[in-house]
């Protein structure tokens, strides 16, 4: 593990392997440890960088508010600190949204873009969505991160054979500072770069789990708006796809990066 001073805060990161730079961006309430199976697989051929977003993991947790542009700027600052001119960028969930923001704000830093179970828009449109946001805030403030982690884990890893992954998720998510978590959550709600994604010119792959709680139709719609982008669906999988089915996920990503 290493640490870089970026935009006035400490960002914790890990870098392994040699070759083309490959940057992984984790999801809300997660950390760089979520990418362990990908780091182990890709470090033989890539210079793999994973890091903790501000407010997450071992990175600093400054007072909010946070913003998606700020997260993207931190990622750009990390690449500059590591003297990396550009990287293949992979993001899941919140990390996928950060990756979209990164690609439209810093196109010269992105060799290719892989979006996992995410999209370019988090606009709140329905009462059901508003209720879900209220409920998550309520659970974090009144019940704590451990309760939220246990609730989410059952949706992400429902199968008995994924018990170890479920327990790791609960342990990692429970570590979160509640206010920093809510700051990051608030940064995502209402955010959108949907009107800018048509200008992305690097190769783009969207990877979707068939049982993800973000609709496949949404992913099909935004992929159609990005020139040359393509979508691959992994069956019998859920939101935390890289952890739930690492072999299948790594194979899909490896095929994309090879082209």
Automatic annotation (TrEMBL):
It holds the Pfam family Abhydrolase_1. The keyword Hydrolase applies. The keyword ATP-binding does not apply. GO terms for cellular component: membrane. Residues 20-139 form the AB hydrolase-1 domain. One of its GO terms (molecular function) is hydrolase activity. Keywords: Hydrolase. PANTHER family: AB HYDROLASE SUPERFAMILY PROTEIN YCLE, MONOACYLGLYCEROL LIPASE. This is 3-oxoadipate enol-lactonase. It comes from Paucimonas lemoignei (Pseudomonas lemoignei).
């Amino acid at each position: 593990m290493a640490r870089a001073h970026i935009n006035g805060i400490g960002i914790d990161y890990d870098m392994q392997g040699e070759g083309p730079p490959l940057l992984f961006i984790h999801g809300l309430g997660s950390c760089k440890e979520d990418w362990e199976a990908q780091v182990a697989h890709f470090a033989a051929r890539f210079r793999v960088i994973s890091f903790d977003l501000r407010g997450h993991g071992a990175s600093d947790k400054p007072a909010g508010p946070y913003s998606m542009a700020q997260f993207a700027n931190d990622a750009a600052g990390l690449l500059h600190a590591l003297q990396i001119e550009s990287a293949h960028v992979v993001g899941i969930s919140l990390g996928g949204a950060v990756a979209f923001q990164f690609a439209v704000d810093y196109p010269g830093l992105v060799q290719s873009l892989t979006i996992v179970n995410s999209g370019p828009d988090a606009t709140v449109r329905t009462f059901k969505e508003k209720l879900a946001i209220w409920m998550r805030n309520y659970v974090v403030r009144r019940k704590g991160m451990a309760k939220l982690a246990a609730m989410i884990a059952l949706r992400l890893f429902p199968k008995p054979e994924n018990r170890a992954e479920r327990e790791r998720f609960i342990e990692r998510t429970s570590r979160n500072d509640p206010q920093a978590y809510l700051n990051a959550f608030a940064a995502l709600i209402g955010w959108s770069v949907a009107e800018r994604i048509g200008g992305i010119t690097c190769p783009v792959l969207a990877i979707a789990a068939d049982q993800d709680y973000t609709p496949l139709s949404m992913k099909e719609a935004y992929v159609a708006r990005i020139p040359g982008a393509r979508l691959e669906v992994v069956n019998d999988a859920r939101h935390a796809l890289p952890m739930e089915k690492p072999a299948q996920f790594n194979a899909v990503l490896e095929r994309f990066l090879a082209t």
